[in-house]
Write a structure and sequence with these properties.
7-stranded antiparallel sheet, 196 residues, 3% helix, mainly beta, 1 helix, 5-stranded antiparallel sheet
Length: 196
């Protein structure tokens, strides 16, 4: 799993309506069922940079339980680059929250491979698109909306999505069971497909 591109905030909201701390944790049952916590609001230990040499020393920050990739002008790799999970996953459910500023373009890549071994940081894979549909030009390209928020980038458009506005938190869930893949946004399934 790769988190990529400039100016996106990933994490757990600082507080919840239930009065809990807002920190990302697993229950004892989730742990016994094999769930793994990729971000606890403090540590980036589950992640490394796609360029190698550990988690990027610049371009990312952890503050108040939130992991943020900082903006870079032009090349998204210029300011720390993308991050990737240290472990590989086959069947998984990835759940997180994000918010973006006006004009942002980012994504979550999964089932990634490095087809360019001489160019560190260049990974190809399936991508859950995270983008400001109204203000980024890439959202207008592609076919039938397949480059818009929650879409399988450049392949399958998300349908019936209910996105929160720029600057507000949105919930993502990517579910993979065997060859079956689902993209969810704010509690609604917006696309599904079978991997070939």
């Amino acid at each position: 799993v790769i988190l990529s591109s400039p100016v996106t905030t990933f994490g757990q909201k600082a507080s919840t309506s239930k009065g809990t701390s807002g920190q990302n944790t697993l229950t004892a049952k989730e742990k016994s069922d094999g769930w793994k916590l990729l971000f606890d609001g403090k540590s980036t230990d589950a992640w490394t940079g796609t360029k190698g040499n550990g988690f990027p020393a610049q371009g990312w920050q952890v503050e108040n339980g939130i992991l943020t990739v900082l903006g870079a002008s032009g090349d998204s790799h210029a300011s720390g680059g993308d991050i990737i999970t240290k472990e590989q996953y086959g069947n998984f459910e990835l759940a997180l929250e994000f918010k973006i500023p006006k004009g942002a373009n980012s994504g979550i890549k999964y089932f990634v491979v490095n087809n360019f071994p001489n160019q560190k940081g260049n990974y190809l894979g399936l991508e859950y698109q995270i983008i400001d549909d109204a203000n980024h030009p890439d959202a207008k390209l592609g076919v039938n909306g397949n480059r818009t928020l929650a879409s399988l980038y450049d392949l399958i458009p998300a349908k019936n999505k209910k996105a929160n506005p720029v600057g507000q938190w949105n919930q993502v869930k990517i579910v993979v069971k065997g060859n079956h893949v689902e993209h969810w946004l704010n509690g609604s399934k917006v696309l599904e497909f079978e991997r070939g």
